[in-house]
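Database export, one record per block. Field names are fixed; values are copied verbatim from the stored entry.
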Amino acid sequence: MIRFYRKIRQQLLSNNKFRKYLFYAIGEIVLVVIGILIALWVNNLNIKNQQRVDEVNVLKELKKDFQADIRDFQIGMGHYKNIITSVDLILESLESTNGYNDSLDKYFARTVAWPISVIHKNSLDVLKSKGLGLISNDSLRKEILYFHGTVYTSIKNWENYLNRDMYFEEMIKRFDKVEPWKYDKLGKFTRGEMKPNNYNALKTDTLYLSILRTMKRDAEFLLYGRYLNNIEKLDSLIVNIDKELAILE
């Protein structure tokens, strides 16, 4: 096409038809500009389409990670329920006139078997590498970042509460055998036991009794104030991700 216009221009110049030459020259420029604009539009369209594909893929991976977090929290909730139940049984036994029974050993062990949740962050790392702005829905992006920031940080801080190490160190002084959990030779997980040095002394050990009650309070806070509460919020977030995926796809 451009060669065709060049030939016309040469003919017009040779025939001294300057006005027509100028008209064809402008037409050629307009065609070039239009071609450039179309190319840019197609390129931008391809970029946007690729960004949408990337956004869909990242949202799907975020959803999987949040679902994995929920499953991990649910497992943790089971452990915290065991802690609470074990503390109640131990306190009930210590406050009674009953003597020592080795069936209590497994409950002693469960009071120090604190679970640590695993936060799945691979999808967040991918999102960061591609740019947080990849998620076009501002409110959804903020909700996702809020969980990976404020919510998860709070959970990890409570799980790693510094006083809990002090409680553990103080408690194990009163036991001959400390074994919150163990694995057998086949790699199978089994619950451990803790055998008290002096069971009767525990009945009047105010520090030990206070630590037990405090650890029960911490377990209840994590169980109901963090895990259960945030599982409900994560369920709601996953619903919002599904709604956004329905729009994008």
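Remark 1: The chain is about 75% helix and 5% strand.
Remark 2: The radius of gyration is 34 Å.
End of record.
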